[in-house]
């Protein structure tokens, strides 16, 4: 028994199969990348801590406690019901002066992670973006 399908029906079925194929391939690729980078994550966190110490030595305003408080407030404001277990400083971008200084934190929880980018405004830190 044959089922008659229109050309449009065949094209839609092929497209659906391709979308599922690429979705599964993307998931597998992301898992492979995460496993490959798992060992270097701790190194990046340590490097960011070292950069923070260097930035603190060269100019005032790089106080980790204050920066963490801003990051935590930003997460609480944008993701009210999301729980996280750890907050890691992963990037310190200390440019000359203070206007272009940036820092990035990653909050890690059971449902994934969230990145918070902080920027300096004068003598205080503000959340520029929460991803």
Explain the overall architecture:
The chain is an alpha+beta fold. The protein has a domain at 40-130. It has helices spanning 7-58, 64-78; strands at residues 86-93, 102-109, 112-121, 124-130. A four-stranded antiparallel β-sheet has the order 1-2-3-4. A hairpin with an 8-residue loop joins strand 1 (86-93) and strand 2 (102-109). The N and C termini lie far apart (53 Å).
The protein's oligomeric status is: single chain
Total count of helical runs of at least 4 residues: 2
Order of helices and strands: HHEEEE
| Alpha carbon gyration radius | 22 Å
Mean pLDDT across every amino acid position: 84
Spatial sequence of strands, sheet with the most strands: 1-2-3-4
Largest sheet: 4 strands, antiparallel
In what range is the share of β-strand residues? 25-35%
What is the number of beta strands?
4
Net shape? elongated
How far the N terminus sits from the C terminus, by CA atoms, comes to 53 Å
Summing up helix and strand content along with how strands pair, one would put the structural category as alpha+beta
Low-confidence regions = none
The helix fraction, in percent, is: 40-55%
């Amino acid at each position: 028994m044959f089922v008659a399908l229109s050309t449009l029906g065949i094209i839609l079925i092929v497209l659906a199969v391709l979308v599922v194929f690429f979705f599964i391939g993307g998931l597998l690729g992301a898992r492979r990348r995460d496993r490959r980078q798992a060992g270097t994550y701790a190194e990046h966190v340590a490097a960011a801590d070292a950069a923070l110490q260097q930035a603190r030595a060269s100019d005032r305003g790089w106080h980790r406690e204050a920066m963490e408080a801003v990051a935590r407030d930003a997460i609480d404001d944008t993701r009210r019901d999301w729980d996280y277990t750890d907050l890691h400083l992963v990037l310190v971008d200390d440019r000359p002066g203070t206007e272009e200084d940036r820092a990035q934190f990653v909050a890690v929880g059971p449902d994934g992670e969230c990145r918070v980018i902080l920027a300096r405004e004068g003598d205080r830190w503000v959340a520029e973006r929460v991803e």
